[in-house]
Amino acid sequence: MPVDQRRINGPEVSVPYHIYSDFDEKSDKVKHDFSKRSDKRTNSEMRKIFLKIGIVSQAKGSAYIEMGNTKVVCSVFDPRELSNKNGYCTQGEIYCEFKFAPFSCQKRKIHQQNAEEKQYSLILQRTLEPAVCLHEFPNFQVDVYVMVLDNAGSSLAAAIMAASTALANAGVPMFGLVTASTIGIYGNHYLMDPTDTEEAICNTQPDKEDDFNHGIITLASLPQHNQISEVFLIGSIDTNTIKQATEMLTAANKDICPVLQQCLVKTIMKLHNEKK
Amino acid sequence: MDTSEETSQSEYILRPMNCELNQLSMPDGSAMLMQGNTAVIAGIYGPVEAKPQKMIYDKASIEVSYSPIKGPTKVDDRMTEMYIKETCEAAIIVTFHPASAICINVQELEDSGGMLGCTINAACLALINAGIPMKFTFAAVNCMIQEDNEDIILDPDSIQLQEAKAEFTFAFDSMDKNVICCYTTGCFTETEFLKAMDRCKQASQYVFDFYRNLVKKYANVI
Amino acid sequence: MDSQYKIIHPVKYLQDHLAQDVRPDGRQFLSFRSISVNISSITHADSSAIFKIGNTTIVCGIKAELAAPKAESPEYGYIVPNIELPPLCSPKFRPGPPSDQAQVVVKLIENILRNSAAIDLKDLCVFKGKLVWVLYCDLMCINYDGSIIDACIGALTATLNTLTLPETLYNIETGSVSVNYTKRLKFPIKALPVSVSFAIFNDQLLIADPTDDEESLCLGRLTIVMNEDKICCIHKPGGIPISQDLFLRSLTKCKKRAELIRSLIDAAVSTIKQEHLNE
Hints:
The structure holds three protein chains of three kinds.
Chain A lengths: L14 E2 L4 E2 L26 E5 L7 E7 L2 E7 L3 E2 L11 E8 L14 H14 L11 E11 L4 H15 L9 E8 L2 E4 L3 H7 L11 E9 L4 E10 L2 H37 L1
Parallel strand pairs in A: 7-8
Antiparallel strand pairs in A: 3-4, 4-5, 5-8, 6-8, 9-10, 9-11, 11-12
Helix pairs in contact in A: 1-2
Chain B lengths: L6 H4 L6 E5 L7 E7 L2 E12 L11 E7 L7 H17 L8 E11 L4 H16 L7 E9 L5 E3 L3 H4 L2 E10 L5 E8 L3 H30 L3
Parallel strand pairs in B: 4-5
Antiparallel strand pairs in B: 1-2, 2-3, 3-5, 6-7, 6-8, 8-9
Helix pairs in contact in B: 2-3
Chain C lengths: L1 H7 L1 H10 L15 E5 L7 E7 L2 E12 L10 E7 L15 H17 L8 E3 L3 E13 L4 H14 L2 E7 L6 E10 L6 E9 L3 E4 L3 H6 L2 E8 L2 E6 L8 H35 L1
Helix pairs in contact in C: 1-2, 4-6
């Protein structure tokens, strides 16, 4: 890889220390105990959500969301006119950029977007498009930037919610709020809102031969309209399980919606009271 | 050292300076400057039409590119470019040429200490040569504080710099001798800083005199 | 009315305020914005800090990795600072490679780290000539509202101050590396540089801790970095010429402010230590 002359460069090769063995050679591959989660939640319980609006003063709208240790910032900017390459566009566009901060994951991320981040950017765009009144701003583009500061699992779901709240905060006309949640599936275990270690487990094949169920489903929906805007699935899961998981996720999304609404209302009330 | 003394005296203060203008045929103004063994060549194009994205409607935009002697430009060179750009911007009457660009290109020829100061001086001479309207001319002077005896050495060369505790580069304007730019390395105290600034300020007169003599010499050529 | 005036004629808007001896955000010329420091909030980084000056927010995270040292300096580790000014933090920035501004800031930060001698790169050595630590210090701007260098230096020093590295052994015979995940050693930091920025306007008017609006309209910028009672960087890239008197005034202001910032960082760091003791 050519050296990037626009940054200060370290050594050509460096390795994270996590790959090395521990002093007391114990194999720490302890079998994951599915009856007990590391943060004392039940399998169907979500982590607590903390949401704050307007944290980026320079942006038109912004949101910060915390789900457990997962921390995501999102900001939305004024619409920009599309460059007229393909002629006049009768619909507006949403441009999303999803990025993990270099220090957000177990392994250090490089500064360019990698394939995963590009994929997440597109998913985010597809998720938000059905919720935004694109016909209200023809030939204009709204930029949505998402930055994951700390990835402790379910960061895509957190990003989707942050983005939809930030869009609402920016005053972009929308049909409704988008909420999202993630479920990890491993054998016959369903783990709501998995952490990053649980996600890693769900990405591996179970040992049992007859049971191939494993994977992660992220589902985004518009609870106010009972519509699903995006389903993103990794892994190999049978249809019955998918159906059950979808129901669980839709129910969870409905539960989260008031959190987003309350946060938006509170911010507006605060502004209103200040003006008085 | 008092600047009111003979210039022959001042020559001991700074390394000998040599300059040739109009060395390059293509640019509107150019200057090849040597300060001791440190040498740079600067060329100015301007005012020319600005690129649409860099155009400023009510003033000239100043673009600087600095090329080191070897290898591609790095992060370090961006810093030098910024210093040249902002120093020249302070001197040039930018409102005279709205929506146009003034391009300053500086090429390093040899570095033996005091590179930043030399590039700034070369840029100033090239600007004079190109006839760009300026509020004042500017002169940069480099100095260092020695590690052991805390002496201030003006315009040190690269061998002297190895024993530097701190190094300073100041650029002064020709009117009030105020500081336009200031670049430091190393740790130092407030008194040391003020002392160094004072010494450089006195020495800057020598550079301005050098400018004056040089322009006089070239006046009949231009 | 106020916001429309600002949009239509930002220059005059600011000038009118300054003529009334007040700044658009209600501060006096030489007063600073409030600071907040939050330490170790990012779980995946080896150490982290969030530093806020008014609206300006910088998140700094350090990831430590292992690498072979350079042949010419077998005892020295690496420290790789990097600043990201993503489009997220301000509409001024576009996606893509680091802008000139980001490059200048990162270079300045590297200079400050070197000049202040805050870090001895020899402390990063695991085994001479074979294995050293690499500290990737990533500074992420979340909210860009001026005085970015001050916030970066604050975040970086706070992060370095809380950095711990796992005990690591290099076996010279087998060339294998083993890491003790349970025992983390405090990384020694030698100094605590503090940066203070000023903006300069017409008639030698000095303004402390400028916001983004003030910075973009000012005629000159000045950054002073204090290291205990010494100065380790005075950065004035150009702009309006300033007198010696102005330097003196900014230096006195800077000293007071540096003390405050230093005590804040120390306080934040000591709370973390307290927590460790309680555990």
